[in-house]
Design a protein that fits this description.
By secondary structure, this protein is α/β, with parallel strands linked by helices. It contains 5 helices and 4 strands; from the N terminus they run αβαβααββα. It is 32% helix and 14% strand.
């Protein structure tokens, strides 16, 4: 059903959220699934929301495997006291949008900059 939905031209990607994607029980299913998504739809982006930080994920080789398939990671737990409704794609100021593939290539955390005029 998901592959059928992704096959539509107007669908630009897939977002993972809820049920913490980086927990071991979810990774066992997500790694092979995302591999198939990227093979079949390489032009579609994959975003992922997590309570973990990017740096913490990188320190755990099993968790880091999932990063191979993610384009943008929204990291950090939502914190009510840092809530900011002006932010794009995140709810609190401690959360970051990370360009995962560029970060992995450069070996440093690279922030993803959303351009609302372009929609990307």
């Amino acid at each position: 059903e998901l592959f059928e939905a992704l096959d539509r031209e107007y669908i630009c990607g897939l977002t993972l959220l809820g049920g913490e994607p980086f927990e071991p029980q979810n990774q066992r299913v997500l790694v092979p699934f995302l591999r198939r998504v990227k093979e079949r739809f390489p032009e579609k982006s994959i975003w992922c929301y997590t309570g973990y930080t990017f740096e913490k994920i990188l320190r755990n080789p099993r968790q880091a495997r999932l990063l191979e398939y993610i384009d943008v990671l929204v990291d950090g737990k939502f914190k009510e006291e840092l809530r900011d409704e002006e932010l794009y794609f995140r709810g609190s100021r401690n959360q970051r949008l990370i360009d995962v593939q560029v970060s992995l290539q450069k070996g440093e955390t690279v922030i993803y900059h959303y351009n609302p005029k372009k929609g990307v």
